[in-house]
Amino acid sequence: MIRLTWVQPEDLVGHEVRQAAEDGRASGPDGDRVRGIARRWHAAGGHDAPPRAGASEPGAARLRGLAEELLDELAAIPSPLDEPSDLAGIIAACPAWPRPRATPAGSAHPASPDPRSRPGAARRADPARVLGAWLGRAAGCVLGKPVEKIPRAGIREIAEATGNWPIRGWFTATGLPDDVARRWPWNRRSAVNSLAETIDGVPEDDDLNYPLLALSVLERHGRGFTTEDVARLWLDELPAGRTFTAERVAYRNLLDGVEPPRTATHRNPFREWIGALIRADVYGWVNPGDPAAAAELAWRDARLTHTANGIYGAMFVAAMCAASMVATDATEVVRAGLSVVPERSRLHGAVRLAAADAAREDDFERVVDLLHKRHGSLHWVHTINNAALVAATLVHGRGDFTATIAGAVAGGWDTDSAGATAGSIAGALHGGVPDQWRMRDSLSSSLTGFDGVSLAALAARTQEMMGA
User: So which residues are the signal peptide here (predicted)?
Assistant: First the structure.
């Protein structure tokens, strides 16, 4: 029997109950309803959300009918939190929402809040920063790949056992004691292409495929692209097996005839996880110095799969990437990111505290201790904990590229995704990456037309889209 992960209804109820606890439904006015649904699920033999796995044992399929019923009942209960998902509501909830970038003197085009109406001449960035962003994203992703799903303690033990703590280079199996290797096995799909001794070019990863798709949607449809354009591009170009969590649920919903933005909410308990955040970098890169325009493009993409803090995470990263093209330091970048996140949201509070911790504490391990104390109950691929970690390592890294990506990975949550995002921003700020983090310039991908593409070519295409 095929047990397809992340989409079977019986595998989703525990996650939706957990989501209800996180978004206030379980403790709000409808808390009794949520608890009653959870009791019915457990009484029938249903399980809680597994900490890491995406599918349950085959026998759970007997609960599918009940699972579908309970998922729909939970979806009918609104969150009491003031966390809008519509763009107008988000902007209204951001007192510091960035003003539209001023048009250069002498331009015939007035400043406009609509990024589709802005003149291409106003959107330019140092090519070294654009290439640095691609190189940094690749390096941070590949550093985190072999230790994905290994908890923080295991990552540190591996690094210490191979003389790589604090992390200053690629992970390696060379010299790793057998008992440590057995206790903390590498990610089985990544060890073959992301250890120091196995890296040969940039391996495929969803954290690198999604920026390619974002670039494609801009090249095909321009800045006026719609959420439906993103959906059609996925169906045309993105293999379903290369999607996970919220993206896989939304893909299933599209095939079932569900239209966006309902694709993000129909039986999708992963709608505040990290998937939209990892898709947002390109929308920032093509809007240098314009976090509002970047955030609006990211919103259009994110609403296909996510709501509330899941959307905010994408907007936060897009705004940071826009700022990283022109900013002088990471604190300025994080401030730009926070400006497009609703001030009363859980994400805003988490990032604000993380940045303050990072600015105050000398020891980054102490910062991560505080993050785990606050957010340890969240899934390891949730938006809030990972975004807070990225902000913290950017601020604490103080321009040190290696320290920045190392902190994102050593934090022990979504290691390749957090590493990729932190690397993207640090690489842009630095205008490149240290030689030790450069790989053969060939990216592997299952997306049509991208297998073997160079990061230099992608940077040039990104630069072209600034003027589109």
Answer: none
| C-alpha distances in Å from residue 126, one per residue of 98, 129, 209, 286 | 22, 5, 24, 12
pLDDT for the residue numbered 102? 52
Query: Tokens for 325?
Result: 């093209």
pLDDT in tens, 88-111: 999 999 999 998 765 433 333 333
Confidence of residue 285 (pLDDT cuts 50, 70, 90): very high
Whether residue 417 is annotated as binding a ligand: the answer is yes
Q: Give the pLDDT band (50/70/90) at residue 56.
A: confident
Q: Which helix (H) or strand (E) holds 228?
A: helix 227-237
Q: Would the annotation count 435 as a binding residue?
A: no
What does residue 250 show for φ and ψ, rounded to 5 degrees? -65, -40
- Mind giving me the DSSP string for 21-50? HHTTTTTSTTHHHHHHHHHHHHHTT--PPP
pLDDT at 120 over 50: no
375 closest CA partner among 414, 338, 342, 332: 414
Residue 226, H or E segment: none
> Over 70: is that where the pLDDT of 266 sits?
yes
Q: What is d(CA 350, CA 313) in angstroms, rounded to the nearest whole number?
A: 11
345-388, pLDDT tens digit by residue? 999 999 999 999 999 999 999 999 999 999 999 999 999 999 99
Give the pair of three-digit tokens for residue 310: 């899941």
Nearest to 8 by CA among 55, 53, 75: 55
Per DSSP, the three-state class of 341 is coil
Q: Would you say 408 and 371 are in contact if contact means Cβ atoms under 8 Å apart?
A: no
* pLDDT band, residue 85 (cuts 50/70/90): very high
Specify the DSSP class assigned to residue 409: H
How many whole angstroms separate alpha carbon 468 and alpha carbon 222? 7
Q: By C-alpha distance, which of 152, 111, 71, 465 is closest to 297?
A: 465
The domain limits of the chain are 9-75, 87-99+112-141+204-466
Q: Is 416 annotated as a binding residue?
A: yes
Write down the pLDDT at residue 99: 87
Helices within 85-164 (DSSP H only): 87-92, 127-144, 152-161
Angstrom distance (rounded) from CA 176 to CA 182: 10
Residue 292 near residue 299, CB atoms below 8 Å: no
Q: Measuring CA to CA, how many Å separate 44 from each of 7, 31, 47, 322, 374?
A: 20, 20, 9, 49, 33
Find all residues with CB under 8 Å of 180, minimum gap 6, and list them: 157, 158, 161
Q: Which residues pair with 202 in a beta bridge?
A: 443
Pair of tokens at residue 348 = 């805003």
